[in-house]
Specification:
This protein is mainly α. It is 84% helix and 0% strand.
Length: 121
């Protein structure tokens, strides 16, 4: 299951760099949950041909991630934005307990909003 999610994520990031057939086969297999036999019947090729195409496409996706690291960077950015939001909340809580600076409160609200906007993109 975890590998399926990993392939689907890689497909989201790098799918357009595959051939149309490779992309279609991965979509059918992982997103549409078709079996190798079903894909083979729909495409008019052997089950082994579908399996080989899927394995080659998976390898290409992993190779692209190894070289480009977009999924890794995306995950790191998302984690960083979560940490930024958490620290902004801690600063805001400290501010409320101690000095109650309106500016600090406004800045932490802006920081959290920016982090949320970046996370939503």
């Amino acid at each position: 299951m975890a590998k399926d999610l990993e392939i689907v994520t890689l497909l989201d990031f790098y799918g357009e760099m595959l051939t149309q057939k490779q992309h279609d086969f991965l979509e059918y297999y992982y997103n549409d949950d078709l079996s190798l036999s079903e894909i083979a019947a729909n495409e008019g090729i052997t089950r082994q041909g579908v399996r080989d195409a899927i394995k080659r496409a998976e390898k290409q996706l992993f190779d692209m991630e190894e070289k480009l690291g977009l999924v890794r960077r995306f995950a790191e950015t998302k984690k960083g934005l979560t940490e930024i939001t958490e620290y902004a909340e801690l600063i805001n809580a400290y501010n409320l307990r101690h000095s109650l600076s309106r500016e600090i409160n406004e800045y932490t609200v802006k920081i959290k909003a920016i982090a949320q906007d970046l996370r939503d993109q």
